[in-house]
Amino acid sequence: MIYGRHGLSALERGDEAVVEVADFTLEGRAMRGVRQAHNRVRRAGYRVRVHRHEDIPEPETARLVADADRLRDGATERGFSKALGRLGSPDDGRCVTVECHDAHGELRALLGFVPWGSKGLSLDLMRRDGHIDNAAWCSSW
Hints:
By secondary structure, the chain is an alpha+beta fold. 26% of the residues lie in helices and 22% in strands.
């Protein structure tokens, strides 16, 4: 890497993943557990909705901000250090929100992503209802 040539090195700070969406598959033995969780969540009726902030009407943005606050686990965000620190700002139109709704249409989890590079996204916000099954949280995305 170019950093190494200049005397810099990487410091690991948690788990990171880069997913090449075009190549991703749930097929194969290594993905068996993920595939089973995905199918369980799908059968339970969970659905995902993805949209850029600039495409969300103002009243819906206000609802998302309120929902994100409701899904926060306590007054202070803990264990997640990449937060942009805001949701719904007009300056963040290219950000992406992913909502996970249960079979009754109730919002159960919310992810936020900020643009990264020319085509990428980086995780910014991660909230969920503490009462949902971990498989629903992880595999509904």
